[in-house]
Batch of 4 targets.
Target 1
Amino acid sequence: MKEVLQDLSLEELSSLVCNAGGRPFRAKQIFEGLMQGKKISSLPVPSDLRNLLLERYEDEPVRIKEVFLSKDGTKKFLFELADGNLIEGVLMHYEYGNTQCVSTQVGCRMGCKFCASTLNGRVRDLTAGEILGQIAAVNRMEGGTLKERAVTNVVLMGSGEPFDNYENVVKFLRNLIAEGGLHVSARNISLSTCGLVPEMRKFADEGIPLNLTVSLHAVSDEERRRTMPVANRYTIAEILEACAYYFEKTGRRYIFEYSLIEGENADMVHAEALANLLKGKPCHVNLIRLNPVKERDLSGTDERTAQAFLKALLSRGISATLRRSMGSDIGGACGQLRARYLKGE
Ligand code: SAH
C-alpha cells in the first residue's frame, strides 16, 4: 500500500508542495480538495504535481463499497481501504443534524464480551487520513460541501479503540477541526474509550475540548471484569480520576456509556450503585439497550426495564438519557456489518 496523503496537515502539505517546486497556494487547494472527498487524480492542480503525488500516495485510500439504508433513515456504510481491508461506519439523522460514526481500527483487541468488532481481534490501526477519509467520502456522497456540511457531528464509536491508536487519532482530530478543511468544532465531536487511563490523561493535555465518553457498562470492578477485559488493567476509581482531570483541563463534562445487559448490569441495585458512584460529578449517562450480537450470548433488557433504570438515575439527580437503538435492522452495532461480510453473508 502506498502512503495516505490525507494523513498530512496543511502545514505538511505546504512543505511537500514547496519541495516539489509547486506554488504555495497549491497546498491549500490540495487540502480543500481532499477534505471534499476528491481523489488525487481529480484534484485541480497541474498534471506534473498530480502525477508526482500519485507516485507516492494512494489515489483513493477510502472507498465507499456499499450503503445500507435502515427503515429509520440510518445509513450504514461499508468502506474498502487500499489494502482491501473493510471497515464500517454509520450516519444517523437527528433533529439537530447528522452524526457520523467512524472506525479507528480494523477490528479491535479490547475483547469486550458484547461487541462484534473484537471477534477476530485487531488487524491493524487506521491512519489519520483513513479515519478522515470516511467522513470526507460520506459528506460528499450526501451532497455536502466544506461550507454546507452534510455531516455535522462526528463520533469515534465505530470499530476500534481510539486510544489504542492514539497518535493517528489525535492527528486525525487536528485535521478534522482545522480551518480550511471540514472545520468541525470540537464540541461536535465525541470520542468513546473503553477506559485506557494513561491515554485519557494524556488527551486531556492535548487542548482538544471534545466530548469524552467512557464505556462503563458496570458499577464494580468485579462485574466489569466479566464483560470488559480492560477492567483488569484499570479500575473504575482510576477512570473516574482521569475523567475529573479531563474536566479540570477542558471544562467539558464527560459522558458514560452504559449498555443495559439482561441479567448482568440492569437491576435496580445497579441503578442505585451507579447513581452513588456518579453523584455530584459533572457527567451524563447514556443508556442504551444492548444490541444483541449473534456470536455473543448476551442480550439487551426490555424497554420497561430500561425505562425503570433511567427513572432510577434521574430521581437520584443523575443526568441521563436512554438512547434509541438505531439501525438494528441493518447491523447497526459495532462491527456487525464487517463480521457478516467477512463470513460472506
Ligand atoms: N472502543 C471504544 C469505541 C467503540 S465502541 C469504546 O469501547 O468505547 C462504541 C460503544 O458501543 C461503546 O460504548 C461500546 O461498549 C458499545 N457497544 C459495543 N457493542 C455493543 C452492543 N452490541 N450493543 C450496545 N452497545 C455496544
Note: The longest helix spans residues 236-250.
Target 2
Amino acid sequence: MKFAGVIVDISHKDVDKSYTYIIPEEMCSDIEIGTPVTVPFGRRRISGFVTEITDTTDVSPEKLKPIEAVNAKEASIEHQLMQLAVWMKDTYGCTMNQALKTVLPVKKKVKARTKAEDVLPFGKEPPKILNGEQLAAVNGILQEFGRPDRRPAVLFGVTGSGKTEVYMELMRRTLDAGRQAILLIPEISLTYQNLSRFTKVFGEQVGIVHSKLSAGEKYECFEQARKGEISVMIGPRSALFAPFSDLGLIIVDEEHDGAYLSDSVPRYSAVDAAVKRGELAGAGVVLGSATPSVRTFHTAMDRKYAVFLLKHRAAAGSSLPHVDIIDMREELKDGNKGMFSRKLEAGIRQRLAEKEQIMLFLNRRGYSGSISCRSCGKVIKCPHCDVSLTSHRGNILKCHYCGFTMNMPDRCPSCGSPYIAGFGAGTQKIESLVKKKFPEARVLRMDMDTTARKNAHEKLLRAFGEGKADILIGTQMIVKGHDFPNVTLMGILAADLSLNVSSYTAAERTFQLLTQAAGRAGRAGSAGEVMIQTYSPDHYAVTAAAAQDYLSFYKQELVYRKLLSYPPAGAMMNVVAMDEQEDAAEAGIKAFYEFSVSFLAGKGTVIGPVDTGVSKIKDIYRKQFIIKHPDRKILLELRDRIQLLPGCLRQIDIT
Ligand code: ADP
Ligand code: ZN
Ligand code: ZN
C-alpha cells in the first residue's frame, strides 16, 4: 500500500503540517508529488496537494482515509507554484517542505505597519520615446515570445543603454494584454531612484517587496497580487513567487548578480527559477545585464536563449567613458608608495576645480582589512569562524561572519611580538587619506558601517545625487545601478584584489565589478573618465573591462573554463560535511568521498577533501571536496545517493 502526505491549506503558516492519506490502487499511476487531490477532512471534503509519497506510515492504516479524487490539473496558481516547488526539490536536492516554504507565501497577520520613509511618486509621466535600438529590442523580444517554442531573452545592453525603458515598454504591453509582470532586482538596487521610475509610470498597479518588510506585510502584498489588485511585482529573489494568476512577463535585471543565488537551503538560482516559472506560466522571461554571467551567455550561445543587443548609451550626448589602466608597480618604482597614483590624484584635483563629482570605488571583494604579525606572519582570526578579523576605527577587530568583536591586541596572540599591523586599506582609511589630501572636498563614505542603519543607504545616495558632496567613496554598493549625471571621474582602487579570491569565478566577478564601476562615469552628456589602478594591468579581466569588451572577456574566460573543466564547460559538485565535532566532520567527508569515488568508477575528477576556505563558521567544522564531471545527470544522481548516507550534516551544490 502507498501513502500520501497532503497539505490542505497551502498558505498555512506551517507547511510541515501535512495529513496522511491512503492512495487507492487505481490512483497510483496518476498521483505524484505536486498532484492536486480531493480528500475527506473532518466532515468536509477539501482539496489539497500531495507533498510526499511513502510505502510506510507511523499512523495505523485503519485510522487513515483514502484520497477521494485526483483533481484536474487545472492551471491554478497554486498548482503552478507547486510544480515550481517540485522542480526546486529535484534541481537543488532539498526536501519538498523546504521548497514549499520558499515558493509559497507564508500566512501571517500584519502587525502595525512600518511607516514608509518615502512616498514613491505615483502618476502618469509621459514615457520616454524609445530610440531605434530600444525599439528593435522590444519588437524582437515580443516576436520571440510570440513563437510557439519561445525562448528566454537575454537583453545584453552596455551600462546606460536604457534597459529600464525596454523593461517598462515590455511591461506596458503585458499589462495592456491583461496579464501581469514581475521584475526582479538585486536588493541593493531597490532604491528610491530606481523604484520611482516604475511607480511614476505604473502607479498603484505596482507592489514592492523587500527584506525590510515584515512577513505579514509581505503576505499582504502577495495577497494583493492574488486578488488582482496589483499587476506588477518588484523585488529581490522572493518576488518571483508572487501568485499572479496570468503572469505574462518575468524580468531579471542585473541577471549576473550574485544576490540571485540563495545562500540558504534550497540554494536555488533565482535566474533558473525565473526561467522555470516562465515555462510553467507561459510567460516571457528577460534576463538583462551589461555583463551577462558566463553561464547565461554560454546557454545563449547554445541557442537556448535569444540575445538582444543595446550597444549604445541612450541619454542624449552620452558616450562610453574613456578608461585608463594605471600600473601601480610603476608607481612604486617611481617612489610613490601611496594609495593614489599621480594620475588619479591629478584627476581628482581637476574635477574638484571644475565642480564635478568623483566616485572612488574600493574593490574590497577578497580583501579583508586583516591584521597580521610582521614577526611570525600569522593573521588574527575569529575564534569561532576561522576567518580573519577586520579592523575598524577605534581599534576594534570584528568578524564579518558572526559579529564577534575584540579590542586590537598590543601583541601578537601567537608569538607575543609587538609588531602587528594591517595590510592595505579599507574605506575608512581611504576616507581619511582623501580628507587629508583634498581638505576642500566634501566627502561621503558608503560601506557596511555607514549603511547599517535603516534607510542610511538611501540617504547617502540621495545626498550625493543632490550634490551635497564632491566625492563618494565606497565598496561594491556604489557601483550598482545608480545614475549620477554629474559624476565624471570614477577611480577604481585595488582593481585586482578580487582576482585573488580562491574561486573559479574570480575573473568573472572582477570583470563584472570593473565594467559596472566604469559604467558609472559620464552617464548624461558630460564626458566620463575612469582610472583603474591595478597590479595586474595585463589580466584579461582588467583589459576587457577597460575596453568595455564583453565578448573578448567571454572568449578568454571560456578557454580557461574549458581547460580546467569548470562550469559551464562541465558540471561541478561541491560536497560539504559539517559538524560541531571536527572528527565527525572528518569521518563524514571521508565516507562521502569514498562513496563518490566508487560511484564514479574512474570518470570525472575529484578534488579534496580539504577544509573549506572558511573551515569553521559559528563553531561548526566544515570539510569539503569537489567533483568535476561532464555529465550533470550523473552528479544529480550521486547527490541524491549521498543525501541518503548516514553521518553528519551535509550541503551539496551542483553548478
Ligand atoms: P541601463 O539600465 O541600461 O544602465 P538606464 O535605463 O538607467 O540604463 O538608462 C540610462 C539613462 O539613459 C537614463 O538616464 C535614462 O533616463 C536615459 N534614457 C534611456 N532611454 C532613453 C531614451 N530613449 N531617450 C533618452 N534618454 C534615455
Ligand atoms: Zn606573531
Ligand atoms: Zn566569527
Note: The chain has four domains: 2-103, 116-310, 322-367+423-560, 571-654.
Target 3
Amino acid sequence: MNVLRFDTISLFPQMFEAITNFGITSKALHKMSEPLWQWQNWNPRDYANNRLGYIDDRPYGGGCGMIMQAEPIEKSILAAKQNHINSNFAGSLVIYLSPQGEVLNQNNIANLLNLVLTKNLGLILLCGRYEGIDERVLNLYVEKEISIGDYVLSGGELAAMILMDAMIRLLPKALNHQDSAVLDSFSEELDGGLDFPQYTRPEVFHGERVPEVLLSGNHQAILQWRLQQSRLRTQQKRPDLFLKMQTSSKNSKNKN
Ligand code: SAM
C-alpha cells in the first residue's frame, strides 16, 4: 500500500507535535516497523525575500490585518511538490485549510484518504495565518479548500491536524482492536449514526447499574441492543443525521 504523506506549509511547525508526539497518530508514526504516515513542514519564512523573514504585508485597498504574501507561499508549495516527485509520489494534491472550504465529515475524509492512497499522491496542506493569503497564489495552486466548520480560527494548523488525525486513524493497522474505528460514530456498521453508550467497571456507579444485556454474554443480543441504542441516540441528539439515515436506507431499498 502507498504511504500517507502530509506536507504542511506553516509558520508554526511546533504545533504539529500535538499529533507527532501523542496517542495513536504518534504510535503510527514512530512505533511501527514502517511508519504508517510521513510528515514534513515547509516554512514560508525560509523563502522570505528579506533578511528579517517577513512574509506578510498590508492589504491593497486598506483594512485591518496583514496578508500572507504570494511568493513565499508559492516557493513553499513548489518545494513540497518537488519533494513528492523525488520521493516517487505520482503527484501532489494541494489543499488550503480555509473557513470558505467544503466542511469536513467522515465521508469526505474517507474519500480523500482513498484518493491519495490509490493515486499515490502526497498531500500539501496550506495553513493560513493573519487575515489570509494573497488570492493569486491560491488561484494558481490550490486544488481543494477544506473547512472544519463555520467559524474562524486564527490559523490553519489546528484544522490541518484535525484532517490528518481523522485520516490516519482510518489507516489499516493504525488502530488496534480496542480502538477499532469499525463501530465509531458515522461508520457504515451503524448506518452512519452515532456510537452507542459504553460502560466499563465498576458495574454500579452512583447507584446506576450497567445495562443487564451487556453482562449477559449473549453477543447477538448485545449487538442488537447496541444498534438499537445507536439509532435512538442519533434520533435524539442529531435529528438531521437520523433523517439522512432514513432517506438513504429508503433509497437503497428502492434500488434493490
Ligand atoms: N479572513 C479569512 C476569512 O474570513 O475567510 C479568515 C482568516 S483566518 C483568521 C486565518 C487562517 O486560519 C485562514 O487562512 C485559514 O487557513 C485558517 N482557518 C480559519 N478558520 C478556519 C476553518 N473554519 N477551517 C479551516 N481553516 C480555517
Note: Residues 97-100, 127-129, 131-133, 147-149, 151-156, 159 surround S-adenosylmethionine (CB under 6 Å).
Target 4
Amino acid sequence: MCGIIGYIGIKPEEILYQGLERLEYRGYDSSGMTIQRDNDFVTYKSIGDVKKIKNQIVFKDEFGIGIAHTRWATHGKININNCHPHFSSNGNIALVHNGIIENYEELKEQLIKKGKKFEGETDSEVIAKLFENKLDINDIRRVKKKIKGSYALAIISKTSNCIYFAKNKSPLYIGIGENLAIIASDPTCFVGYTDNYITLDDNQYGRFSQKEIVIYDKDDKIVSIKPTKLDFKYLYEDRAGYEHYMIKEIYQSRLVLENIIEKYRTFEIKEKLKQIKSFEFDRIYLIGCGTAYHAGLIGQHYMREEFNIDIFSEIASEVKYKNLNIDEKSLCIFISQSGETADTLSALEYCREKGGKIISITNAEHSSISRHADINLPIYAGQEKAVASTKAYFAQCIVLYILTCFLKGKDYITPLYYFKRQIDFGDDNEIKLLSEYLSKYDKVFFIGRGVDYISALEASLKLKEITYIFSTAQPSGELKHGIIALIDENIPVIVIATDEELFSKTLNNSYEIKARGGKLILFTSLNIDNEIKENFSYIIKINKTQKEFMPLQVILQLQKLAYFTAKDRGNDPDMPRNLAKSVTVE
Ligand code: F6R
C-alpha cells in the first residue's frame, strides 16, 4: 500500500504534510518527508500516524522541492530505518515508493556484492541503492529496466530542479498549477491547489519542474499531455461532533441513501444502467475483497431471487486460480470502495482478457478500477475515512439492489423511499450494554441462515478487525459439522434471525449451543414469545422493513456493536492495527 507525494513550489512542507494527511488512509505505520533547498536535503521521519511527524517539521514559506510518504509495512519491520524516503549510497538521491519490487532480493544481493550497505529491510531501499551519483532521465530508464513488480516512484536529488517519476501497477497522478506541480498516489492531494491533472499509465516515466512536464511511454517515446479537470471535491470531512469517523459514517447511511436515490434517477445514471442491460450475458460474477465481497454476496442474493441464470460471487484474490468460466457472455461486476484494491484490479484485468463485460461499483470515480471498467456505477457515499467500511457497504448493497431491479424492469425508487423512512439505528444504550459484556471475551461467534449468514460474515469481520477479538461466522446449520466442538461457556454466540421462514431452524441451532454452555445473543426483527426469550442473555430488536433491506437494517446495529466494543477495549476504531484503508498490493 503506502501513499506517495512530491511537490515543487513554495511552502513545500505545508503542502506535503497536508498530502500525507489525505493519503493516510493508505497506511499509517510510519511517515517521512525530504525537502531539497540550496542543494541540500532536510529529512523528517516518524513512526505511527502522520500527526506524529508534524511536530518535527520546520514549516517554511520559501520555494522547495520535496517528497513524502506514508507507509503500510510490507517488507521489513515498522521502524525508522524502514521509513521512506530512502537514499542512494552517497545520500544525494532520495526516493519514495508505493508498490512491491518482486526481484528485490536478487538485486539486493548483487548490490551487496558491489559493496553497497543497507540500513533497513525494505524492497524500496533497493531501488534507491540502484542510483549512483547523478539523477537524470537515463538513470530512471536504467533503474526501471532492472526492477520488476509494482511501483509508483517519486525521486529527487540534491542538485536537480525537478522531480523524476515512474509508474507501474500502482496509481500515480500529476497535478499542474500555476508555478506549482504535485505528484501523488491520489488526486485528492491536488484539491485546493489545482484543477488540472494527468493520470499516468503503466510503464510511463518522466520528470517535471514548475514549468515543464515530460512523460515517456514504455517505448521511450514522449507522450502528449492531456490534463483532465478535477471534477470532485476533497471535502475535509471532520468528525462533526462524533468521537470517531466510524460512528459518524454509520450514521451517514441515511444521507447516503438519499444521495443514491437522487443520483440514480438522473438521465446520466439511467443511461449507464441501460447500457448494462443491453449487454448480452448469461452469467454474472460479483467480485470484491473483504466487505466489498460481502456486498457481492448480498448482490448475488438479490439477483438469484430475480434471474434464472448462474450468478456467482467471488473473492477477488482467488479469481485467477479457479478456472472460472468467464467469456464474452459473462457480466463481471467489481465492487470496491476505494477503487484501488490491487486484488480486485488484477481480477478485473484477468476477466477483461477472458472477454468478460466489466462493470465497477466504486466510491471513487477517478480510481483505477472505475477507469478500467466499461461502465462504472458510483455509490455516492462520500469520503469514508474510518478503515472499517460501513456506509460504503450499505451503499454498495443499495446500488446492487438498484441494478437488480433495473435489469428486471422493476421500480426501485419507491421501495428505497420507504426504506429511508424505516432505517433504524437502534438504541445506543442497549448496544453499549452488550458491547461492555462482549468486550470481556476473547472469542465471539456469529451464526445465521440464508441472507442472515451474509450479515453474520460482515458483522464478524467488523468485530474482529477493530476489537481484535477472535471471531468467526458460520451458517447456523453448519455448526454441528465441526465448529460446535469449540463451544463452551467462554464463547458468546450472536444469532442473527430476520427471516421468519428460517427462524425455527435457527432457533434449534441456538439451543444446541445453549445446551453446551454457550451464551446466546439474538439480533432479530421477529416477534418472539417469553419462553424463547429466556434462552438469550441479550436480545436486540431490529425494526422490520421490506425483506430486501433487512440485511442493511441489521448491519447498522452490528456495525455499532463492533464500534462500541472496540472503544470498550481501548482501541482506536478508526485506525485498527495492521490495516490500511486502501490495499494496493496483491
Ligand atoms: C473491512 C474493509 C475491507 C475492505 C476491503 C476492500 O471493513 O474495509 O475488508 O472492504 O479491503 O476494499 P475496497 O472496497 O476499497 O476494494
Note: The first strand starts at residue 3 and ends at 10.
